[in-house]
Design a protein that fits this description.
alpha+beta, 151 residues, six-stranded antiparallel β-sheet
Length: 151
C-alpha cells in the first residue's frame, strides 16, 4: 500500500513539474519573440452552433459544425431534438495592430467560445506581436506571467 502511494505521489509530482516547465517555456518564448502592442477591435462576429456531448449539428455532407445565426439556433436545436442548452456561441474577433517588425498596420483575429464581456468594436486590447514576422500575433490570454486582455 505504501509503495503504491509513493508511486502515485511521484507521478503527481512529475506531472506538476512538467506543467510548470511548459508554462515557463511558453513565457520565455513569448518574451523572447513577441512584444506587447495595442490593437483596436474592428469587428466581433458571433455565431452559434449546436452540440451536446457527442451529438452535434453539422454541415451537409461534412463533419464540420454548422454555424448559424444565434436567433435561429434555438429553433434548429428544437427541430433536431436538442435541448436549448445545446446551443453554444463562437465569437470571431478581428483586430488591427501596428507591427514592431516593420511599423505597418496588419489585421489579426482570434475565436472564443461563450459570451465575451466587454469585447466590442472600437475597444483597445493588447496582443503579442512577433518581433520579426509582421503578420504573426498571439492574443493575450490568462498566461501565468502576463496580463489578460485589456488596454
Amino acid at each position: 500500500m505504501r509503495a503504491r502511494l509513493k508511486v502515485i505521489a511521484i507521478g503527481v509530482a512529475a506531472i506538476l513539474i512538467a506543467g510548470a516547465g511548459y508554462l515557463m517555456a511558453q513565457a520565455y518564448q513569448l518574451k523572447k519573440n513577441y512584444t506587447l502592442v495595442k490593437a483596436e477591435i474592428m469587428s466581433v462576429v458571433t455565431e452559434c452552433f449546436i452540440e451536446a456531448g457527442r451529438e452535434r449539428v453539422v454541415r451537409n455532407g461534412t463533419d464540420e459544425l454548422a454555424y448559424m445565426d444565434c436567433r435561429l439556433a434555438p429553433l434548429v436545436a428544437k427541430q433536431r431534438g436538442f435541448r436549448a442548452g445545446s446551443v453554444q456561441k463562437r465569437n470571431k474577433v478581428t483586430y488591427v495592430y501596428r507591427s514592431p517588425a516593420d511599423g505597418r498596420f496588419y489585421s489579426g483575429e482570434y475565436t472564443r467560445a461563450g459570451d465575451l464581456v466587454g469585447i466590442e468594436k472600437g475597444r483597445k486590447i493588447q496582443v503579442h506581436a512577433h518581433k520579426t514576422d509582421p503578420m504573426e500575433t498571439r492574443e493575450v490570454t490568462t498566461y501565468l506571467f502576463f496580463r489578460d486582455i485589456g488596454a
